[in-house]
Amino acid sequence: MSAPATNLEDGAGSGTVACLDLDRTVIYSAAALDLRMPDHAAPRLLCVEVYRGVPLSFMTENAVAAFTALRGVAEVVPTTTRTPEQLARVHLPGPPPRYAIAANGGHLLVDGVADPGWDAAVRDRLAGSAPLAEVWSHLAAVSGTFVLNRRTASDLFCYAVVERPAVPEGWVEALGAWCAERGWTVSLQGRKVYAVPRGLTKSAAAREVVARTGAATLLAAGDSLLDADLLDAADLAVRPAHGELHDAGWTREGLLVTSATGGAAGAELLEHLRELAVRNAAPLSGRV
Fold first, then answer.
1. What's the CA gap between 202 and 77, in Å, rounded?
2. 28-58 pLDDT per residue, tens
3. What is the reported pTM?
4. Does 213 fall in a domain?
């Protein structure tokens, strides 16, 4: 993972926070890289995640260069639905970040450690939603042979790993309707169907990082429906031309969409973010 080139809390730096979703936004599995070119023209890759001894996630050489350049002009914050344990497997270029957001905003990591005050505030905010146990029980009840596995994450939300072609028509929608009545949302991402409390958002954690750093600008990038609130909350946002948001035609004022898809989109959106950070940099003098 990366670290900002400067410490914004000391009053230096660009005054920009860049919150980056990871999977299929900045890092890509071998399948998601979508390398549609002859083998001899394929880009060089950096492996950024190994799981059980197997290389799992990658960045292209161009993405590594763009990511490193972005670090020089912004406080880069990995912002993911992964749990802290899953996030710890990812090693982006450079030293670890000062801030990271895990579990869809459920954990704010400061120098790699979950902030206990933030954890407590999140659980207070979720008190109005149905408890995880109720949603977990319903998910188990409606799961068929097309569900390969079910898991909970950080005792905050749950998801099912599915054989996507075998998922019955209308199943995701029915689960979503049931969850909506109980203050939860449902999102299908690849082979995973997530059920997440409505109050558990990446945007809330991103705003907390902005407040702590005193930054003037929030940039964001993401590809899934769980990233929509983050992109909406940002001053400026970028998404790749693939993923749930693209399939849904999701947009907002000033949104940048990459021309490339797959791993090439990762490099393109990181370069867009660097350009935006430079263009919108603001001094922090006089800010509290």
1. 11
2. 999 999 998 899 999 999 999 999 999 999 9
3. 0.89
4. no
* Beta strand ranges found along 21-143 (DSSP E): 45-51, 54-60, 75-78, 99-102, 107-110, 113-114
Token pair of 4 as six digits? 């900002």
Which domain range does residue 56 map to?
A: 1-127+256-288
The count of domains in the chain is 2
| Sequence-distant (≥ 6) Cβ neighbours of residue 79 within 8 angstroms | 19, 20, 21, 22, 100, 101, 202, 205, 206, 220, 222, 230
Report the residue count for the chain.
Answer: 288
Residue 34 lies in a domain: yes
> Number of helices (H) and strands (E), helices first, in the chain?
9, 14
Q: What is the mean pLDDT of residues 87-110?
A: 97
Q: How confident is the model at residue 282 (pLDDT cuts 50, 70, 90)?
A: very low
Side-chain half-sphere CA neighbours of 264 within 13 A: 12
pLDDT at residue 2, as a whole number: 36
Same domain, 185 and 108: no
